[in-house]
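Hello,

I think I submitted the magnesium ion job twice by accident. Can you confirm which output corresponds to this input? Input:
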Amino acid sequence: MIKRFLPDMYQESIFTINYKKLKKNGIKCILFDVDNTITPAREEKFYEQTKKLINKLKKDFKIILFSNNFPKRIKKFGDYYSVDIACVSLKPFSFKYRYILNKYGYKNTEVAAIGDQLLTDIQGGNKVKITTILVNPISEKDERETWLNRQIEKKIFKVFDKRKLLQKGKYYD
Ligand SMILES: [Mg+2]
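Support: Only one job matched these inputs. Its output is below.
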């Protein structure tokens, strides 16, 4: 049961992910969470470093910003990074994932999702059996709706730790 929250990979940030390995594993499309994955939640920060990374990744992968947040916010990031966006995704529900797989014509084995939350990004991705990658949240501040999720997440991390499945700060790919 607890394994539905377990990411396939766990990395410090989007900059430490082994994208070569993803490519080797047959990944063709990467879904990036937005809040606290590429920008601090509740802030609008655009990073040159992130733009460089995304531009590099575009050569090997289709990049899509896949967020539960609203178009008003996400569109700005889509424009800045020149990538497609999917908003109000209602993670962890699976239908937007399925919609995206269908729309772009990818199999679940060809898609990876990167995000900072076990309950939304990882659980949702695991449901549709895409590759899930957890990163640490950029900021301690969260969207207001996230508060309860973080409380639950803390408990899940404890169980992970007890069962030696994942330890905070111990990264793996
Ligand atoms: Mg997030």
